[in-house]
Amino acid sequence: VDQVANLTLVSSACDMVSTAYASTKESHPYIRSVCDAAEKGVKSVTEATASCLQPVLTTLEPHVAAASEYASKGLDKLGEKLPLLQNPVEQVISDTRELVSSRVADAKDAVSS
């Protein structure tokens, strides 16, 4: 999970969502109260679930470690094959717009000729 969260694309997307969420809460008092209630509910459920799952996680720790190592190797390979994951969201959006614009211009030229 840490490795995925540290991918530039993922972390920049999370930052964008977090900023939008905070801005929305700041700008709309009614939405803020709903969000605050939801956050408290999620926190309570998370705490209750964590305490219940702790004995199970302790038992499964060797299996989780093996799965984590396997997933880490897979993410490394994915990062090599998809360098896009190392770019921030803004750059991916910009590059995609440029590519689409170029393709549309090419198609227009082909149709007009």
Report on this model:
The chain folds into 2 domains: 1-81, no CATH class; 83-112. The model has no long low-confidence stretch (mean pLDDT 92). It is flat and about 70 Å long. The protein has 4 helices and no strands. The chain has helices at 2-5, 8-27, 29-81, 89-112. With 113 residues, it is an all-alpha fold. The longest helix is centred in the middle third of the chain and has 53 residues, at 29-81.
- Outline, from the CA principal axes? flat
Q: What is the N-to-C order of secondary-structure elements (H for helix, E for strand)?
A: HHHH
Structural class: mainly alpha
Largest sheet: none
**Count of the separate structural domains:** 2
The tally of helices reads: 4
Q: Portion of residues in helices?
A: over 70%
Please report which band the strand proportion falls in: under 5%, 5-15%, 15-25%, 25-35%, 35-45% or over 45%.
under 5%
* Low-confidence spans: none
Task: Count every beta strand, where a strand is a DSSP E run of 2 or more residues.
Answer: 0
Overall pLDDT score: 92
Q: How many angstroms separate the termini?
A: 51 Å
Radius of gyration: 22 Å
Protein name: Perilipin-3
Family: Belongs to the perilipin family.
Pfam families: Perilipin (PF03036)
Keywords: Lipid droplet
